[in-house]
Amino acid sequence: MTIRDKYSKIREDIPEHVTIVAAVKTRTAEEVAQIIDAGLTDIGENYVQEAETLYKKLGDRAKRVRRHMIGHLQTNKINRALELFDVIQTIDSLKKADAVNKRAAVRGKVLPVYIEINVGSELTKSGLSPDYALIEDLIKEMAGMKFLRVEGLMTMGPVTGDPEDIRPYFQKARQIFDRLCSLDLPHLDIKTLSMGMSHSYKVAIEEGSTMVRLGTVLFGARIYR
Ligand SMILES: *Cc1c(COP(=O)(O)O)cnc(C)c1O
Fold it and tell me: Ligand 1 centre from 191 Cα, in Å?
């Protein structure tokens, strides 16, 4: 199957309200162009430098999609990230939120962001621990940040062989998401739960994901060059 066919098939198989973000790290501009031409609406990058190179090569095609930062954001890359991305999914601390808000304020543009939670509490992963009170505290602080709008939660979940093992973690993320949805605060418009990757997206959707980030199932196995 071509990349185009794989995308179309998955798009048909999952509910309409679930957004597909193509996770494009290591992919060529030609591969990404094919999937945009097949109707992809959103792409996700892990690295600022890689995104810059890719978007240049994609030209107008890069402007037809919503561009998400899904990788760890270094403080010294925030300005460039603000030029490249429409959404930053990886806000994981008050300090990071504050730094992004200050730089967004200079540009005078409100930036949609998601809070990243480390739902498996894994030492090797970034993100807030899945403690509701902690996450609510951060969001309450962010309600004072005029140039950020919190629109969602993002989580990776533990990587295991069997996606069924991740289900309880997805349920936990969903519970936190539901509680946050009912908060009524300024600069808050929670509507997106970004969870599920190639091996786990079906389970994630069953557990309430509204956005899946897919690489391998669309483009094949990654080759790091
Ligand atoms: C690479 C990546 C994905 C997609 O991974 P696949 O297993 O190839 O689908 C999703 N989210 C993030 C944050 C990633 O870095």
Answer: 21
Distance from the CA of 90 to the center of ligand 1, in angstroms?
13
Q: How far is CA 49 from CA 90, 108, 119, in A?
A: 16, 23, 28
| Confidence (pTM) | 0.96
Give the separation between CA 115 and CA 113, rounded to whole angstroms: 7
User: Residue 24 in contact with residue 45, Cβ under 8 Å?
Assistant: yes
Check residue 128 and report its DSSP letter: B
Token reading at 220:
């094949």
Closest by Cα among 117, 44, 114 to 84: 44
- In a domain, residue 225? The reply is no
For residue 73, count other CB atoms closer than 10 A to its CB.
Answer: 24
CATH of the domain at 103: 3.20.20.10
At 102, which amino acid appears? K
Kindly tell me if the per-residue pLDDT of 37 is higher than 70.
yes
Question: What atom of ligand 1 comes closest to residue 70's alpha carbon?
Answer: 13
Number of domains in the chain: 1
pLDDT at residue 22 tops 90: yes
Q: What percent of the chain has pLDDT over 90?
A: 90
CA 68 to ligand 1 centroid distance, Å: 12
- The pLDDT tens digits of the residues spanning 181-198 come to 999 888 899 999 999 999
